[in-house]
Write a structure and sequence with these properties.
Blueprint lengths: L8 H5 L13 H9 L3 H23 L2 H17 L10 H40 L6 H7 L2 H11 L2 H12 L4 H8 L3 H34 L1
Helix pairs in contact: 2-3, 3-4, 3-5, 4-5, 5-9, 7-10, 8-10, 9-10
């Protein structure tokens, strides 16, 4: 479950506020006004879309601090690249695409750190085994819980599969919106989601099977 976002003055302060729009208007008009120097127009876009962007990012990285930082960075990057926004696109999918790329970079860095930490942990485990010290069985049981396995499986998917799963199954996005994020057709988006689900199922099948087998033995 995505945690309720706390007010973040640092995040809010990152978007310049100046001038005023004074009226409720659509995203295209706000983007055009922001391009012409109306900073308050972009503030309206930020307030309108930030929670949806934050929820998407949190599902990608599963860390509240990282999600807040990436949300801030995504909107700052969008603000400085408004001249690249294509009018036929939707701002919501454009900012989601920016967020997706930032998440991919952040997750890639985290995976590199995790790999190094895993090597260190493996060395420690080998030392414990050689020394006759057994790892904590409670910690082993915790690692086998289904919820943790599912979360780990999603996070371990390649970025394009992980994003497709999150957009469709977690965020409930329509296929045309997913297509805009990936830069493909609606049919292409459906195919991406199908492949992502198959990849997740294949990754989960062996580990969930082990958990079910252990639970069945416990009931005997």
């Amino acid at each position: 479950m995505t945690p309720k976002r706390k007010p973040d003055r640092k995040m809010d302060a990152a978007i310049p506020v100046q001038g005023s729009t004074g009226v409720e208007t659509n995203d295209d008009a706000l983007i055009q006004a922001a391009r012409e120097g109306d900073f308050a127009a972009f503030e309206v876009l930020y307030q309108r879309h930030r929670l949806a962007v934050y929820r998407f990012i949190y599902q990608m990285v599963h860390k509240q601090d990282d999600a807040e930082d990436i949300t801030q960075e995504a909107f700052v990057r969008a603000f400085h690249n408004l001249h690249r926004f294509r009018e036929q696109a939707r701002f919501s999918t454009w900012i989601t695409r920016i967020a997706m790329n930032l998440c991919t970079d952040r997750v890639r860095m985290a995976q590199r750190r995790a790999f190094l930490e895993q090597k260190e942990a493996q060395g420690a485990l080998e030392w414990m085994t050689m020394s006759g010290v057994s790892p904590n069985p409670v910690e082993e049981m915790e690692r086998n819980r289904t919820a943790a396995l599912v979360r780990e499986a999603v996070m371990a998917l390649p970025a394009h599969h992980r994003t497709a799963i999150i957009l469709r199954d977690f965020e409930g996005k329509e296929y045309d919106e997913i297509g805009e994020v990936f830069g493909c057709s609606t049919g292409g988006a459906k195919l991406r989601v199908l492949r992502a689900r198959r990849a997740l199922k294949a990754r989960l099948a062996p580990v969930l099977g082990e958990v079910e087998t252990e639970e069945a033995r416990d009931e005997e």
